[in-house]
Design goal:
Blueprint lengths: L2 H15 L4 E4 L14 H6 L5 E4 L16 E4 L2 E4 L4 H21 L17 H6 L2 E2 L2 E2 L2 H6 L14 H4 L22
Parallel strand pairs: 1-2, 2-4
Antiparallel strand pairs: 3-4, 5-6
Length: about 180
């Protein structure tokens, strides 16, 4: 890249950076130090309270004032230089999943007896149940399996529509999916 091209790019970045409250940088070139994209002058043009998250900190950082493994502050702008951020994601993802699962299951537990007590009329139970008493009750799953959910009726099958007694709902026959989850 020519010096003129680099200057144009830097000017464009500088124009955008000064109007941002949060800037995330990620530029890395394998086997080389991280390219410097945000100069000290650009950082000084940002409003106090702004944040730069430099995800290239392990290789020196994309911001001139990045301190790898630290949080630097310059004229009210905080520059985060985390190391091994990807290594921290699994821990956070597992904790988030555990909290979500607990929040999902809590309404189905009786608080006094600590036993499973599903209210099948509850919107959450209705919306997430797939099968109950051996029958498919979820419309989307039943459709994928080629049937209707248990309890679903059509206008022709309704007793009030044709005067006939209501027939019991058919159970959708479960089809075995091949490895990979795709059906043909």
């Amino acid at each position: 890249m020519s010096a003129e091209y680099k200057k144009k790019q830097a000017d464009l970045v500088a124009e955008h950076v000064k109007n941002q409250d949060i800037v995330i940088t990620t530029a890395l070139i394998p086997g080389r130090p991280a390219p410097q994209l945000i100069s000290k002058t650009m950082i000084e043009s940002m409003r106090p309270g702004s944040i730069i998250m430099d995800l290239a900190a392990e290789r020196g950082g994309n911001a001139e004032l990045t301190k790898p493994g630290e949080v630097a502050e310059h004229k009210g702008v905080r520059i985060f230089g985390p190391l091994n951020l990807a290594g921290q994601v699994p821990v956070n993802a597992s904790s988030l999943y555990a909290r979500n699962l607990q929040a999902f299951i809590d309404p189905f537990i009786d608080k006094e007896s600590k036993a499973l007590a599903i209210d099948w009329d509850d919107e959450l139970a209705k919306g997430t149940a797939i099968a109950r008493d051996g029958a498919i009750v979820n419309a989307m799953v039943a459709e994928r399996l080629g049937g209707k959910p248990a309890g679903a009726t059509t206008a022709a099958a309704k007793p009030e529509a044709n005067g006939a007694a209501k027939a019991p709902a058919k159970k959708a026959a479960a089809k075995r999916q091949p490895k990979g989850g795709k059906t043909t």
